[in-house]
Amino acid sequence: FQILEIIIFCILLYFYKIKAVKHIVVLLMMVALLASLTVIAVKAVASMIILSAKGKMQLTYPVFYIMIVLMATSCAFQVKFLNQAMHLYEAKAVVPINFAFFTTSAIISGVVFYQEFQSAALLSVFMFLFGCLLSFLGVFVIARNKKEEHLQIHFIDCGHIPGQKFTGKIQPDSHSSHYGTLNNEDNSVK
What integer is the mean pLDDT of 154-178? Predict the structure, then answer.
């Protein structure tokens, strides 16, 4: 399963970097695939630390440090691609799609890699999936397209503020005797 994720990620990265496809789904699918790697690495590191605390030393194995590096790099690139998506698209589009993709990828990676549903009862699996569906439905309801409200407040043009006094120059003349000093109100009116 992880090999399939890596292949899909490489294909998406090819379209993103080489073909310059900057679609929101491409960016957030890469974020979700990196998130699934992060979930697997975090769970592995946490399990190894817990086992080490219980007396079965796991910190001497190289896989522990490989998982820490995988966790850190996948988090860093996940944030990088998410920031790029936030710069290209509005938050009201990025956040719900990212939530749905991230949650789905985390669930699928946990189910496949750690076989979390293998010994679970059918009712527990159904309730978990039903909870995910309700969560996705809630995100959809919150993020659905609403009509943009236009402000009825008229803004004042800064160039036409009533009662504002203007001087002829923005920058004082460097050859003037007043250069480097504050203008006196009487001098600026003259």
Answer: 56
